[in-house]
Design a protein that fits this description.
Elements (H helix, E strand, L loop, with lengths): L1 H19 L14 H9 L1 E6 L2 E2 L3 E3 L5 E2 L1 H13 L2 E6 L5 H6 L5 E7 L2 H4 L3 E2 L5 E10 L14 E5 L3 H10 L2 E5 L2 H9 L5 E5 H8 L7 E2 L5 E10 L7 H15 L2 H8 L6 H9 L7
Parallel strand pairs: 1-5, 1-6, 9-10, 9-11
Antiparallel strand pairs: 2-3, 3-4, 6-13, 7-13, 8-11, 8-12, 8-13
Length: 284
């Protein structure tokens, strides 16, 4: 409680300073009005867009509440800001629009960091997570290496960039389907030895309890970092800087690694390496 009170007091001081200080300039030369930040602080609540259908990063429990790793991150943001939290379920198709239309103040929703998205929303670094290419395969097969796919039929989704990579790099014989449901059914029907796809999606399937005889046995490759976002006009202003600091802290103090463990997510080398890079070089 004392920590939250001190944090709230510091935020209040910062907000007061901003109210009377000259408008700073963002990196693109526009004045920082900090409208969203000031709105959140004045009403005492932050609205965060999260996934509600992507277990274990964001999903609904039996009572209908949204829970998951990214929800815990949103809770930490609200606690550090000293405000209440309001969660809004978003989808990949509308999450950026919700942010720029003001329906949410912050977005933490399994979004990959891409150049075209940086032109729409305020993505701030460092990236808090990453996903890569992996496979889901029957435990009974005991696959342990990407080379185990050579010359074997592997199910995939039409248009996925990793199909060609796995074919050329490891000699797998890709059988592409129009959708993931068809590809996964083909895996169940033993028309292929594995399904190649994004490891976060595979992890979501494995945590659903509907794939108990399957596993994700390989080391993920070709990382695709994830990004949270503030409104584009606040990227280089107080809100963006604050969220950048939150992500650095999560990496440095091991918060993200602990959340992986809490939610049963397969440990990622990305988080371990990042924490090591940010470690105190003088620490014992």
């Amino acid at each position: 409680m004392m920590k939250k009170m001190l944090t709230s007091a510091l935020i209040l001081v910062l907000t007061s300073i901003l109210a009377f200080a000259p408008l700073a300039a963002s990196a693109d030369g526009h004045a920082c009005t900090n409208d969203v930040w000031n709105k959140v602080m004045s009403r005492g609540k932050i609205v965060v867009g999260v996934k509600a259908d992507y277990k274990p990063w964001g999903y609904r429990d039996t009572s209908g509440d949204i829970i998951g790793m990214e929800i815990d991150m949103a809770k930490d943001v609200a606690m550090k800001m000293g405000v209440d939290l309001d969660l809004v379920a978003v989808q990949s198709s509308n999450r950026m629009q919700f942010l720029e239309q003001g329906k949410i103040d912050l977005m933490i929703a399994t979004m990959s960091d891409r150049k075209d998205r940086r032109e729409i929303v305020g993505i701030v670094g460092p990236n808090y997570y990453t996903s890569g290419t992996n496979i889901m395969s029957p435990k009974a097969l005991g696959l342990t290496d990407w080379e185990d796919l050579r010359g074997k039929p592997v199910c995939g989704k039409q248009g996925a960039f990793y199909n060609q990579i796995v074919e050329e790099r490891y000699g797998a014989e890709i059988i592409a389907f129009t959708g993931n449901a068809e590809a996964k059914q083909a895996l169940r029907d033993k028309k292929c030895i594995a399904w190649v796809y994004d490891d976060s999606s595979i992890g979501s399937d494995l945590s659903s309890g509907e794939w108990e005889e399957f596993e994700m046995p390989l080391n993920s490759e070709d990382d695709n970092p994830w990004a949270l976002a503030v409104p584009s006009k606040e990227r280089d202003c107080v809100f963006g800087r604050f969220m950048s600091g939150m992500q650095y802290q999560w990496h440095q103090d091991g918060t993200l690694i602990e959340l992986e463990k809490k939610w049963g997510i397969k440990p990622t080398r990305y988080l371990a390496d990042y924490q090591e890079r940010l470690g105190d070089w003088l620490a014992d």
